[in-house]
Structure formats: structure tokens, C-alpha cells
Amino acid sequence: MAPKAQDELFAGGGETGALMRSIDWSRTPLGPVEDWPQSLRTCVRVLLTSRQPMFVWWGESLVNLYNDAYRAILGGKHPQAMGQPAAQVWREIWEQIQPRAVGAIEANEGTYDEALLLIMERNGYPEETYYTFSYSPVPDDDGRPNGIFCANTEDTRRIVGERQTALQRDLAARTGDARTVDEACELSAQAFATDPRDLPFALLYESDVGDDHARLCAASGIAEGHAAAPVMCALEGATWPLGEAMRTHAPQIVDCTALPGELPVAAWDVPPRQAVVLPVPHSGNAARNAWFVAALNPYRLLDVDYLAFLHLVAGQVGASISNAQAYEDERRRAEALAELDRAKTAFFSNISHEFRTPLTLLLAPVEESLRNDAQALIGEDLVSVHRNAQRLLRLVNALLDFSRIEAGRVEARYVPVALGPFTAELASMFRSATEKAGLRLDVDVPALSSPVHVDRDMWEKIVLNLLSNAFKFTFQGGIRVALRELPDDVELVVEDTGIGIAQEEVPRLFERFHRVQDARARTHEGSGIGLALVLELVKMHGGRIEAHSAPGVGTRFTVTIPRGTAHLAPGRIGEAIPDAMPGTAAASYVQEAERWLDATDPSPAPASAHERARGTILLADDNADMRDYVRRLLEGDGYAVRTVGNGNDALELALASPPDLVLTDVMMPGLDGFGLTAALREDAQTRNLPIVMLSARAGEDARAEGVEGGADDYLVKPFSAKELLARVSLQIERAQRRTEVERQRAELRGLFEQAPACIALLRGDAHVFELANPPYLKLFGGRQILGKPVREALPELEGQPFFTLLDQVLRTGTPYVGTETSVYMDATNTGRIEERVFNFLYQPIRESGSGEVDSILVFAYEVTEAVLARRRVESLMQQLTVADQRKDEFLAMLAHELRNPLAPVRNAIALLQTQGGTDERTRYLLDVLQRQTANLGRLVNDLLDVSRITRGLIEIDRARVDLRSVVDRAMESVQSAMDDKRHDVVCIVPGRPAVVDGDPVRLEQVLVNLLTNACKYTDPGGRITVELRLRESVVELSVRDDGIGMLPATIAHVFTLFSQAERGLDRAQGGLGIGLTVVRSLVELHGGSVEARSDGLGKGTEFAVTLPLAQSQFDGQLRAPIPERGAMRPQRVLVVDDNVDAARTLAHLLEDFGHHVQVAHDGDAALAMAHSTVPELVLLDIGLPGMNGYEVVRRLREDPVTRDATVVAVTGYGQGADRQRTLAAGFDQHLVKPVATDQLQALFAA
């Protein structure tokens, strides 16, 4: 290409355009410019005219062409990169970008990367960079891709900035709530760990000003204790230049390659090469220093931005440390104020107790004396008032002394004193008290070489306070007082073998208002300022005091004061006082100590009958004067009083012999009033003892605390005698009432526990088990149900009606009674559900005040066994009923089946008898057949009657009946049987009617059965007597024989079904054993009774039937006798029966009577024959094949030709229901097989 054309192609473009124009492209792989394809030329023009960083890679070697904007990306590679292969220009990142370039050309598809990390070496060092770019394939003139066009954007500053901002944000969020310096450092380290690229590892150190080592507070990215992260780091050591950083307040650069140990690589592939040590600025405690050690990103230079970031991080850490430090300081101040407040509260509580106790002992006796006529204090009251006034004065003086000391207004007077004799005299004043207490007092106080300048009153208070303190806390061993002369000082030692003090309490011994909690002492009295006052008094002498103690060993106080006067204010030095003695205050110390001893031995309680009637009171108070005063008051009111001086003795006495009331002070040594109350409430035998507390603490809060602590009453000092006695009396009366209520409650609970029923009480809407007696708990396998809602305690009842019923009873207040209710429950607590049956009651219980239902009483009896037994019985009864019904059905069927063959037999006999002309032997045989057929008929009837009786279906057709006619007909019925056995039958009947309301047929059946029975069991030729006797309102019909008789055991069940006499070879006619059962049933249906009598075997038997006479013997008409047979008009008769023999014999018999008879054996034939012959009378069997008798009669009634015929049912079924059904079906009459001849005659006669 001509130079002009080349200049036009590379026109413009700034420095890179000029660079392109200066290159001889023919010497490059691209060749002469004029040979460049048009697409390449277009790309060159685009990039040279664009301000966006762009480049083109062209040809096989991907020759690099770029614009001015791209120079910043190349850095030191420009201008050499122009026209060079891309692989040579970007050798350090070619492994990452080469696959993208090749892929774009070969696949002819562009690529896109956003904020891709590339470690470039464009300025002589590896550098972390981020780029967003795309490779777009550029086609050659032949259309195939031969180059890449790329426009890109550098994101390095954005990515790094966002990362660092995120760290600062997380750091602020994490450390915002830090409450301690260590917590702030630890949370900061956790935030550092979120940015391992900028902070591969980081350390936070701290030290107090003046220390030569710093303590590692926290670390991230490196283990604490690593060689490069020592736990304790020397400020001037070789590891980190902490001292230099703090002195210069400037960052210190450290070469990490010189650090010991292998450093972690963090998020990069190489360990950090440099680290920075920065002092942490903070506005907190100026006595503390802190440092931030940060390992640097190995792919970034420590430029201004990076250093500014590190300063920001250090500043945030410093702020969090300052905030945490401020919080710690504030917390310590708050704790100090709270501790001071607690101390003041304790002080005022103690001082209130110290003032109120003597005030009570001053005011109460004075008030009592003012109520007396003499209005004078005498005896113990006067002594007590004086002693407590002195004590009150001493307390006030102590407070004033302390107040003046704190205000700097104490006017001390230091005079030369022979300190040895003066101290010895002070110590010796306690000898009587120590000896009385069984302690040893050693006074080792030699005379000193020269007087010592002290304030006598102050020294007296120092010695007496220390001795009083030792005596108060020493119970065994002794107390030692020693005075030693040192070269420049004088040393006073007060040492005891008392209870000792825990090491953590020793530094606080001299704090104002501080008291060692739960320390065993002779008394709880004291203001809590004694040792604090001693400390201040010693300081005023220019001296010091130390304490050494061990629990169980004792305590030693050492007071050291300088000799001479150089340490004293000249204006406070005075002259010696000759023959000075201890002040009067010293005696009060000793007197008070001796009063402490009165608390050691409990006093016995008087036991007079009067005192026992009022009750026994246990009084616990560590103040002897208060004990004596209260004891005198109570004893004067008739109580027996036991007194003790501390809570432990009170507890021991109360447990050994419980009193009626405990009266206790709140503040006592060892076990205080609250501890005593808690211990008494924990023991079963003293749990309900009334307890009254005495306390100097006034106000509702104090009273509430006492009551919450378990006391029944709380009496504030000072109190009047009248108020104390009233409170004590009230509490004892309440306790007595409570005891009575508890006794009654125990009795009720005993009844509740021993009740055989299952009882439980359910409380509230959730039905929580409040009470349940043992039987109820046993129901559910001993499950723990008390205190649980019923749905939780008994989940298996869900889905059954009981939860709903409980809700209903609670809502409506209406009781619910359940009878034999099945409950499906887990009775063994094994998960196995079984059925149990209960009778139960849900009784609502109303709250006494509101009347609302708030609980439900459950009262239940288990009836499972009874119900199951009844169910078994019912099942057996049902089976028995079914069996009995089947038996009855069988008997009815049997009777029917027996009647069917009887009918033709009886008809045949009747035919033979009507023919006449037979010889005597034939007539005899016919008579035998007739008798036996009649017997068989009676047996069949008895079987049917038994079936009807057992099912309650027997019927009687009542009418006015003269029993004389019944006797006549019965005798006719059995006459032939009697004649056969040649029985002598005697019949005795009255001359007047014996009328009863009865069924003549059934009554005749009764008498026939009795006569048959007598005939059966009476030997041939025996006598049978039938007697009818009238008595007032009844008639007695008896059948008496002289037969085989009966034993009493036989008589007992002679009327039982199927019962019969024992069969023998001479008694072949045992019978079915149903005749007498029928007799009893029929007699009872008539409202009568039957009785069997016998004097034994071989002495005969009598059966007596008793029936009620009709109301009027002549009221109404007697039933007409069976009509005699008269002349019968010949009639047209149709006999229908499927039994051919029965039908033919009946037809022959009727023909002998002169009737015209037709025979049919089924329904269809009967209907056809009736329509053609038009019979006047139809004798129709019911059980026909095909069409039964009911259908036949219905069609006969529908046919106009036969509708007026008389249709008579002739069947083996003769029960009342059978008769009703036949009449309802259209039959005119109902005859039962076998039909007797006289029945037929009566039928035709009618």
C-alpha cells in the first residue's frame, strides 16, 4: 500500500496510531498493509477511533494491535507489545486466555467473562487484576474466522473496593455489641477471616503501658501460638516491631520471608511476602496499648489505597476496643455503685436492727410502766433500759466517729502514752468474759522503752473493737494480744483461734458496711463499720493494719504505728495525761460481750398445767435483753417459753420437740430467721408450725419478704407488749384451727383413699387430674396421671364419648350417669387396649364463691365381671331359648306328623265299628285299637300343650262350668282303662253345683291326666277315689289312689317336665313325663293350684286341684253340654287331603253317614271338582302339595259357584295362631287331626 493509504488507515489514534504508522508491517506476520483483508482494516479503524480499551489479534500467531485506551492495561509492556504475538505479550496469563481465543476462532462463537481474575505481570511484579471482556471472532475475506476483536473493561478497583468495604461493614456489625476488649478482638478476627485476599492473616496484640510484652488477643488465618503469632510477644523482639510502631505512631513494614515458621497461603497460591504493624488508635484507657498486625496481599503493592484501607480497619478495631473498654468501665462503675448500694442497704438494714432492738427494749418497758399505777421502772426492766440506752449511745457515737473521720473533722489529740500497760489493761477487761465462755486469753504486752504518741480514745477503740471481734467469732481455743517494739514502729497483734475467714473475703474485711455472709458468730448484731473504723483510726496514726486468716484456723490482725511525732500534725500533739484510766465506753464493750454468752444454752420450758394449756413457744433471738423481755411477757400471759440465741439451736429444739409456735428474730448468727423458717418448712413434723418473725426492717416490702419466706406473721421492732401477745395468740389459735381442719381433711382423705369405688377430681377446662384414689390409679396400670389434663393422661379415650361428656358437664352443670358403659382402655399401661365396663357418675362441683362449675368429681364402679357374666348367661339363655324354640317347633311338627297317620287309623276303626256283625274277638280287637288310638291322641295333645305352655301360647276358652259335669265326662273317657285293670273307682260329688270360670275341655284334660296317672301307678284291683269338695270360695278336686306312692324327693319334682316314676319290669308304662306338667300349667292358667301328697312308697298318692269358685254360683249361663247326635241330612261333601289313606277312610266314613262324598288330593283337582260338583261342605287339608289350603279357600271364595260352601280346615296344626290364620283366610271352622266321630257328627248337625 502506498504511504498515503497507510497513513489514512492508521490516521488519528493518538500515540498508538503514530506507532502503527511507524512500523514496517511487511516485516511482521501480517505482511504489507495493502495486503490486509478488509475486515482487519475495519477493525483497526474501529479501535483507533474508540476510547474504550480494545485490541485485535490477527492471523495464526494472533498478532496484537491495540488503541491508546489499552495502554493502561499493558503497563510496561507498551510499546513493545504492538505487532507482537499475543502468546508472547501475555505469557503469564496465556494458560487462562489461550483456550478462550482458540475456541472463539475454531468454533466461530464469541466468549464473555465478567470480572475474571488474572494475575498479570505488567509492571514488573505479579498483580491481582479483574477484567470483563469478550472475544468476538472476525472473518477473513474468505468468510472464515482469522482474528479476534476484543473490547474490555478493567474491574480491579471496583472488586477490591467492594471487598474491602464488605470487610469494614462486617467488622462494624460484628463488633458493635462487644462487651469486653477480648470479645471485641475476637469478633474483629472473625471479620478479618472473611477477607483472606486482603488479609491473608491478621493479629491483634494488647499490653498495659509499661509492660515489655504484649498479649495476643485474637488471630485470623494463622493459629495462635504459631512461631509468627506468639501468645506473648516482646515489644522489642525480632518477630514484630510493636515498640517501634507505638513510639513512631507509624506503620512498620515487615519482611515475611524472614519470619520463623511456614506461613499460611490463605486465599492465594503463595504465602504473604510482607506484613504491616499498625498501632491501634483508641480513646479508651490510656494505660493500655494495642496493635494490628496485617499480612499483605502478595499480588498487590502497599500503595496509598491499600495503606488507607489498613488504617481504616485499625481505626474500626480501635473504636470497638474503645467501646468495649467504655462498656467494661461503665459496668465496673455500675457494679461498684451496686456494691456500694448493697453495702449501704446492708448497713442501713443492720443499723436499723441495731437501733430498733434497743429502742424496743427502751420503749416497751416504759410503755408498760406508764400503764401501771406506780408509773415506775423497777427490777430487770430498769436494768435493761439502762443497758440498752448505753448500747444505743455507743452505736450513735460510733456512727458519729466514722462520719467525722470521713468528713476530716476528727480532732485527734496525740499524747505520749505508756502503751504497754494501757493496752494490757484494756485487754484484761475481757478476761471475765473469755473465761465464762471457756476461752483462753493470753496478754503478752511488755512495757515499752518509751511512750508512744497515740490518741487514747482512738487506741482504746482500736483495741476493744479487735478484741470484741475476736470474742464474737471464737468458740474454742483462745485469744492472744501481743505488743512488740520495733526499731521505728510499735506492732499490736490480736490473734484468735476462731472460725477464720475465706481468703477471698480477707481483702474486704476493712470495707465499710461489709459483713461476711453466713459466718458463725455469737450474735448477728453489729453495724458493719467496726473494722472500717479501726482502719481509719490506724491511718490517722500514720500506721497500717493487716489481716491474715484461714477457715477453721483463726484470724490475726496486725496493727503497726510509727513511733515519734514526725508523722503527726504539730498542732495535734499534746502533753501526757497522768494516771489515765480506760473510759466508761470500755466497760460497755465487755458488758455487751458477756450478754452474748447468755445465748449459748437453750433454756428449758416450764411444764406446769397452766402453761401447757396455753401452749409452748420457742423464742430465738441473739440479743439476751430481747430474749429476757419477750420471755417475761409470754410467761406472764401463761405460755411455756423456750429461749435460744441462734437459729441452729432453735432448729434442733424444734425438731426434737415441736412447740406450738416459733417466735424468731430475722438477723441471727449462723442460721438466720429466714434459714430457720425454710428448714422448719422442709421437715414434715414442723411444716405447719406457726412462725412469727421479729425484725427491725419496716415497710410493706419487708413484711412481704417475711411472708414469702414462709412466716405466718411479721412484727416490726419496736413493738408493744400488747401487740406481741395479740399476734402470738392469734397465730396459735389459727394453728389449732388449721390442725383440726387438717385432721378432718386427713379423715376425708383416708375415706377417699380407702373407698372401694374409683374416685377422681378433674379441675378446670382442661380437666386436670387433681386427685385420684388408689383404685382409680390402679385402673390405668399405675400411670402418672396426677397434674395432667385428661386428654394427655388417657390418650386412648380419644374418639370415645367421655371427653365430650366431661366438657358438657362442665359447661351445663348437669350431672351425667353412665350405666354399664364400655370403656376401651390401656388398663395395664402396656399399650394393650381392652374393654372394661363401668357404672359411673360425672358430678359437677361448683366453686363456693362464684357458684361456677370449676371441677368434676368422677365416681365409678367397675362391673366388667358382672356384665360379662350376665352376657354369658344371656348368651346361654339365648341359646337355650333357641334350643327350646326348636324343641317346641319339633314337638309341634312331631304332633302334626303323628296326627296325620292317626286320622286314617281312627277313621278305619270307626268304619269297622259302624259295619256291625263282627264276632266278639274282632269287636275286642276294635275296642283295643280304639283305646290305644285315644291314648296316642292324648299323648300327641300333651306334646302340643307342652310346646304351647313353654312358649306361653296356651289358650283357654273361659265359660261358666259345673265341675260335676267335667267329672262325669272325664270318668267316661277313662272308664274303659279302669275296667281293664279292674280298679274300684269311687266318685264323690256334692249335691249342689260347683261352678268355676274355666275351659271345660281343658279342665276335663286335667282330670283325665290325673285319672290316667292314677290308673297307671295303681295295681289291678286297687281303689281310685275322685272327690269334689266345696269350701268357702274355692272348690277342691282330688284324685286319690292306693298305688305305689312316692318318696318326698320325688314329690318335690313330680310336676317337672319329663319327670316320671322309676321304670321297672312290673311298670312298663312309664309315659312321657309331661302329663302332670300340663296339669299344673292348665290349673295355674285357671288361677288355681295343684298339690301332690304321699305318705311314702306303697301308701298311695293324692293329687289335689284347688280352683276359685265363680263369684256367683248362679250368675250367668252354664255352657251347654255337647249336643246329642240327631238325624243328619245327606249333603254333598268334598274331601281334600294329599294323604290318600286319610282322605279315603274319611270319605268312606262320611258315606256310611249317608253323605255324597268326592275326594281330591291336590289344590288344582279340588278347585276343578268343586266347580263342577258344587259341594255344600269342603273338608280341606292345609298342607297340600303345590297350592296350599289357604290359596284353595281364597279361590273358592272368589268363584261365584263355590263362594257359599262351608269350608272346614282339617289339619295337624291346632294352636291358637293356626286357628286365627285359617279363619282370617276364609275358613268357616278349624278341626284338628285326627277328627273324632262325634266332632264330625256335631259338624253336620250344626
Automatic annotation (TrEMBL):
Cross-referenced InterPro entries: CheY-like_superfamily (IPR011006), GAF-like_dom_sf (IPR029016), HATPase_C_sf (IPR036890), HATPase_dom (IPR003594), His_kinase_dom (IPR005467), HisK_dim/P_dom (IPR003661), HisK_dim/P_sf (IPR036097), PAS-like_dom_sf (IPR035965)
**GO MF term list:** ATP binding; phosphorelay sensor kinase activity
Q: Which UniProt keywords apply?
A: ATP-binding, Kinase, Nucleotide-binding, Phosphoprotein, Transferase, Two-component regulatory system
The family database entries (PROSITE patterns) matched by this protein are listed as: HIS_KIN, RESPONSE_REGULATORY
Give the Response regulatory domain ranges.
Answer: 616-732, 1132-1246
Q: Span of the secretion signal?
A: none
Q: Could you say which EC number(s) this protein's record lists? A: 2.7.13.3
Cross-referenced SMART domains = HATPase_c, HisKA, REC
Q: Which Gene3D superfamilies match?
A: 1.10.287.130, 3.30.450.40, 3.40.50.2300, Histidine kinase-like ATPase, C-terminal domain, PAS domain
Q: What class of enzyme is it?
A: transferase
Q: What positions are modified (4-aspartylphosphate)?
A: D665, D1181
Span of domain Histidine kinase: 350-565, 893-1111
Q: GO CC annotation: what is one?
A: plasma membrane
- Organism domain of life: Bacteria
Catalytic activity line of the entry? ATP + protein L-histidine = ADP + protein N-phospho-L-histidine
Name of protein = histidine kinase
**Native source organism of the sequence:** Lysobacter dokdonensis DS-58
